[in-house]
Design goal:
The protein has 4 helices and 3 strands. The protein has about 130 residues and is mainly α. Strand 2 and strand 3 form a beta hairpin.
Length: about 130
Amino acid sequence: MNRSGGDDRVPLIAETEKQLNTLLNDFFVGCDLEIEFQTPTLEVLLSAPKLYVDDGFRNAVENKGHGQQRAIIFTILRRYAEYITCSGEGKNRNLILAVAVMITRTSLINPRTFFPWLEKVKMSRRLSLSQIA
């Protein structure tokens, strides 16, 4: 199931990883997100997989900076929105997803990069964007 398994990798996992990496590169160019599963045991099958990021140093997501963790969260939400709004009949379903972001002078979010990214998503997915000052 993992990359180290080579050809034994589940195609859906590899495709999901590829799609997440494409979206993550909007935030961190050259970053590689990897979904890794432990060797299956009953306990492991009931637990969640771990996410790893390689931005020059491969490590678990929880050990990366808050900005990168936030970008990964939005990447996963964006992919989930794409998945959930596409139907098999070629029609798009509607999805309302609310994200509250508080930006302060000491915030780790840079409004100059964050809000244009939201605008890009809005244009590509017919989303509505509201800002409250």
